[in-house]
Each structure stands twice: as C-alpha cells, then as structure tokens.
Amino acid sequence: MLPNYTPHGWNEECDLYVVTRAMFTVEYEIKLSRADYRADRRKARKHERLAARDPDDKGLPTRFFYVMPEDMVSAEEVPDYAGLFYVREIIDQYSSRVKLIQVRPAPRLSNHKRADATLHAMGETAYYRFWNERQRFEEYRRQVAQAKVFAAVP
C-alpha cells in the first residue's frame, strides 16, 4: 500500500492505493469534510471511468472506496461504483483510537490483475520518497550541529 500515489494509467492521485495478495487493486479516497467530498466530483474524467466499469480499462482499480468521518454523508449519497467506510473515533480514559466501519462494500469495477511492474513502480516511488526524507533529515542535522558550533563560539 502506498499513500498519495498515482498509478500508471490513472490520471488522479490516490489517497491510498493498495495491491492485494491476489494482485487486485483498491483505491481509498479519504474525505475530511462535506465540501471536500463535493469537490471530489470535479474530477469528472476519473468518476466517468469509475462509473463506466469498462472491463477493458486496465487503469481502473478493482474496487474504489470513500473513507470519511462517521455520518458525514449517507450511503445513498455515494455513487453506486463506490464503497463507503466510516471512521469512528473511540476515546476512553486511557487512549484514543479509530475504528473503520464498512457501511457499504465496493462493487468490483475490474477483473484486471496488476503486473509485477506495478509493485516495482510502487517500490521505486516509496524508495525515492524515503531517500528524499532522509536527505532532508541529514541536512537538518547538519544545520543543528552548525548552529551549536556557532552558539558555543564567544
């Protein structure tokens, strides 16, 4: 699984893109507000492709889910090609955690399995993201060390 990833053949970035053990793909679109949910409909080309469920469209995810706070929108408001998960925050005296509740399963949009090249591309993306973050962290450490040296000079 990889967050903020744009798979080959898909023009929109996925909030969370997952390849299952069976090599099927699932896209999770995370929405934090009703306005955010409504704004997502502006991605007309993406939603047209999802709604068409074209069996020859190899870029389609196998399933597509919306993930949002509980009761933000009803299951009836979600398009028929999408599943729905609610996020419920559970707070007790010791901790706070979240629970995912599947409100509606997502229909199968495609039967295409992803090739190993998809996993390879996802791995490369994750590697370069990690490498860039590591470089940023190393630069930060150098700046902190340099600041300590200047602070110690009278």
Keywords:
single chain; 154 residues; alpha/beta; 2 domains; six-stranded mixed β-sheet; 6 strands
Description:
There is one protein chain. The protein is α/β, with parallel strands linked by helices and 154 residues long. The protein has 2 domains: 2-113, no CATH class; 115-154. It is 34% helix and 27% strand. It has a 6-stranded mixed beta sheet with strand order 1-2-3-4-5-6, covered by helices on one side. A hairpin with a 4-residue loop joins strand 5 and strand 6. The termini are far apart. The relative contact order is 0.15.
Quick recap:
Helices cover 34% and strands 27% of the residues. It contains three helices and six strands.
Strand proportion, as a percent range, falls in 25-35%
* Shape verdict: extended
Number of domains: 2
Q: Which H/E pattern describes the elements?
A: EEEHHEEEH
Note the main sheet. Answer: 6 strands, mixed
Can you list the strand order of the major beta sheet? 1-2-3-4-5-6
Averaged pLDDT: 88
What distance separates the N and C termini?
Answer: 51 Å
User: Considering DSSP H and I runs of 4 or more, what fraction of the residues is helical?
Assistant: 25-40%
Class by SSE composition = alpha/beta
Give the SSE layout.
Blueprint: E1 2-5, E2 14-19, E3 25-30, H1 34-40, H2 44-52, E4 63-69, E5 83-91, E6 96-104, H3 116-152
Parallel strand pairs: 3-4, 4-5
Antiparallel strand pairs: 1-2, 2-3, 5-6
